[in-house]
Design a protein that fits this description.
Layout: E1 2-4, H1 11-18, E2 24-28, H2 38-47, E3 51-55, H3 58-66, E4 76-78, H4 80-94
Parallel strand pairs: 1-2, 1-4, 2-3
Length: 110
């Protein structure tokens, strides 16, 4: 799992709920002043015996993800700022067109 979260969320509870399902965590700071310091998340994970590493950016976390077994599931969770940053890094890395995930037809009648 790739994880980073803001201090406005119940991050300790999130970690406790997710930890039984993921034996290895990649911690990345979301692009926000309100991001929980990675040392805090790392400390909680270490105290419950969960393996974790910290990465300095969404791009560097992708290096780890793309270096894993292709059959291994990777989940990105936590802050929407983190997810957006990783999405942008994927778009850049794979050189795909950055198009909206969905569009809304404003001319449609209700």
């Amino acid at each position: 799992i790739v994880f980073g979260v803001l201090d406005t969320k119940e991050w300790r509870e999130m970690v406790k709920l997710l930890s039984p399902f993921f034996s290895s965590w990649i911690l990345v700071t979301p692009n926000s002043e309100r991001a929980v310091p990675l040392r805090s998340i790392r400390g909680l994970l270490s105290s419950i015996g969960v393996s974790n590493v910290t990465e300095t950016s969404a791009q560097s976390s992708l290096d780890l993800i793309f270096g894993q077994d292709k059959n291994q599931l990777t989940v990105i969770s936590g802050s929407i700022y983190l997810i957006g940053g990783i999405r942008q890094a994927i778009v850049s890395r794979l050189k795909v067109i950055d198009s909206p995930i969905w569009t809304r037809n404003l001319s449609a009648k209700s």
